[in-house]
Every structure is written in structure tokens, then in C-alpha cells.
Design goal:
Blueprint lengths: L19 E5 L6 E4 L4 H7 L6 E5 L2 E7 L2 E6 L4 E3 L7 E2 H9 L7 E3 L13 H13 L11 H19 L12 H10 L3 H7 L9 H8 L7 H13 L12
Antiparallel strand pairs: 1-2, 1-3, 3-4, 4-5, 5-6, 5-7, 6-8
Helix pairs in contact: 3-4, 3-8, 4-5, 5-6
Length: 245
């Protein structure tokens, strides 16, 4: 039987130093490159409901509501804390994007993980992903909260796609295709659900899936971002009765 736990496709990092990027996790146009001359207008005009994050030279600024943002250092789980909080005025995020290399006070995420809140609670996201994979749905039908079960099926598909190509379910697992698509739909990943629904034996969709699910070379980043959103929108879907997780 194939092992689906820790596969990751080796891909070159697509982050280009000096480029300002905007990712919108809840909008049709997900990725944009921002001209520095248009940064202020774009930053101040972006709708927080689209769950935007700006990236510049390794710094990521998340606009979490109309008046606030959070800032993290990409790749090291470091977050900016000022005046004792990681919730900063939105205008401060614009200043940081303009000077990403300045000497800011970065704090490791483990120092504030229980206070991150909203869709930025990265440590809880990673814990749930690990727990979902541990359900091993390829061995037995998983039991647990509805969100966790959906995540277990989607991570099964994802890890198999990264290791063996997106068409891997056609080789003996066709009965699971509808379940994989339903998991993507639950997480509002409609593009992934559509792709799963049109798998082909020649694996023509593999590159499309890799680019869709892991933009900028970050494995499963789109899935993790969708999970972060769903934890806020449907918190009850991720806990068992009597459980505090």
C-alpha cells in the first residue's frame, strides 16, 4: 500500500526578493504583484473580508480587520510584537511593508500561540493537519468532528498528488474521488474540488494542482489557509463533544 504521510514535491522557491505580492484567500483573483508606487492605495483599499496578506522580502502583513493587522517573518514562525501585542494598527503594517529589513522585535510564535486568534492561529492549524493525517483514512473510515474528517480526506488526496501525481486515485481508489471533492468543497476550495472532479489517466492536471495547492512553493499553503478560515467560521466542526481542542 502507498504511504501518504510525509511526501512533498521538491520545487524551487518562487519567491523573488524585492517583489511585493498580495494574496487574497477569499477572492476570485488570488495572486497579484503590486507596483511599489501603488502599494499605499492597494493596502489601504483592500477589503479585509477577502483575507488579504501582503508579502515583501520575507515579511508578511495580514490585514485582519479594517483597523488592524498582524505581521510575521516568513519561514521562521516569527511574529512582530509591539507594545505587548501582536495586533497592530493597520497603518503600521504599511510602514513595515515599506521597510521590511528594519530592526523589528520578532517573537517566536510559540510565545503567543494561544493569543493569535482568528484565521492566523498557525500553531493550531498545524496541529489539526497533523491530527487529520493521523486518522489514516486509507486504512479505515475516520471518525471524529466533521471538519477533521474532511481534512483527513483532503490531506490524503494532497499528499498522494504531491508524491504520485493528481491522477493517483484512478489507480484503485476511484470510489474515494467524490469524498475528496466533497472535502475540498467543505473548505470552500472550489477550484480544487473542480480539478478533482475532472481527473484524467494521463495526469495532465498534476502541474495545475501543484501550482494551485502550493503557491510560491509552500506545500499545501492554500489548504492550510482555508482551514484557518474555517476554524473561525465553523469552530464547532473541529471539536468532539466534551473536548477542548
Amino acid at each position: 500500500m502507498l504511504e501518504f504521510r510525509t511526501y512533498r514535491r521538491a520545487r524551487p522557491c518562487q519567491h523573488t526578493r524585492g517583489v511585493i505580492r498580495l494574496r487574497l484567500y477569499q477572492a476570485r483573483e488570488r495572486l497579484r504583484v503590486i507596483d511599489p508606487a501603488e502599494l499605499e492605495a492597494t493596502y489601504l483599499g483592500v477589503d479585509p473580508e477577502t483575507k488579504p496578506v501582503f508579502q515583501h522580502d520575507g515579511v508578511m502583513v495580514w490585514v485582519s480587520d479594517p483597523d488592524h493587522c498582524r505581521v510575521e517573518r516568513r519561514g521562521r514562525d516569527l511574529h512582530l510584537v509591539e507594545s505587548g501585542t501582536n495586533v497592530l494598527p493597520r497603518a503600521r503594517g504599511l510602514e513595515i511593508l515599506r521597510t521590511p529589513g528594519a530592526g523589528y522585535r520578532w517573537v517566536h510564535s510559540l510565545d503567543w500561540r494561544w493569543g493569535a486568534g482568528e484565521y492566523l492561529d498557525r500553531d493550531r492549524v498545524e496541529a489539526i493537519v497533523d491530527r487529520a493525517i493521523d486518522l489514516e483514512p486509507w486504512v479505515a473510515v475516520p471518525e471524529g468532528p466533521v471538519g477533521l474528517v474532511h481534512m483527513s480526506y483532503l490531506m490524503w488526496f494532497h499528499n498522494g498528488a504531491m508524491a504520485n501525481g493528481a491522477a493517483w486515485p484512478l489507480d484503485g481508489w476511484t470510489e474515494q474521488i467524490a469524498t475528496f471533492a466533497a472535502a475540498a468543497t467543505y473548505l470552500e476550495l472550489d477550484e480544487i474540488a473542480d480539478l478533482i472532479g475532472r481527473l484524467e489517466p494521463d495526469d495532465a492536471l498534476s502541474h495545475e494542482y501543484w501550482d494551485l495547492s502550493s503557491p510560491f512553493g509552500e506545500d499545501a499553503s492554500l489548504i492550510r489557509d482555508a482551514l484557518r478560515c474555517k476554524l473561525v467560521e465553523a469552530p464547532g466542526d473541529w471539536v468532539c463533544q466534551g473536548s477542548g481542542m
